[in-house]
Amino acid sequence: MSEQENKSSIVASAYIKLHDSLVVYIANRTGDRSAAEDICQDVFLRALEYELITPETINSFVYTIARHLIVDRLRRRACQMAARTYIKSHYVTQGNTTFHEVSGRDLERVEKLHVSHLSPMRGKVYTLSRYDGMTTAEIATALDISPRTAETHLFAARKEVRQRMKECIS
Fold first, then answer.
1. Residue 56 exposure: Cα atoms within 13 Å on the Cβ side
2. What is the DSSP string of 154-170?
3. What pTM, to 2 d.p., does this model score?
4. What share of the chain is helix, strand, coil (3-state, %, to 5)?
5. pLDDT in tens, 139-155
6. Backbone phi, then psi, for 144, in 5-degree steps?
7. Cα 125 from Cα 138, distance rounded (Å)
8. pLDDT digits (tens, 9 = 90+) for 44-100
9. In this structure, what are the phi and psi dihedrals at residue 95, rounded to the nearest 5 degrees?
């Protein structure tokens, strides 16, 4: 058996043995079962990338990878929330805030309408990026496409939505 086959075998048996308990571990820390499933998949994909995997170390190694991915996800969410809070607190102008809220909701509605006119793949990629806060790497994994393809779809979708929004506003 080659070294690659041995490593794949170790990870595959760990997947069978640890998947359910790892999903519960991740879900307890993130509060999101769906995200836990995604992170769990990433854990085992990353485990395949490492060279020094043995049957004795795979269990702790998988949980270490999971812990790191959970922390990364929580940090990313915290940064997003901090950015939203900063924008809301520093860019709210004096005046009719009801008007601004209604205008903002109208723009969001128009944006979603334009997204619905994108091709199905571009629409999915745009939605996962814009509304779910996923990176192109996460999108690529979720949609089973290459990261470069995800980047290309996202670039084209953003360009198209931006162009349609400009036409709508002008």
1. 1
2. HHHHHHHHHHHHHHHH-
3. 0.52
4. 80, 0, 20
5. 999 999 998 999 999 99
6. 60, 50
7. 10
8. 999 988 888 888 999 999 999 999 999 998 888 888 888 777 777 766 555 556 666
9. 125, -155
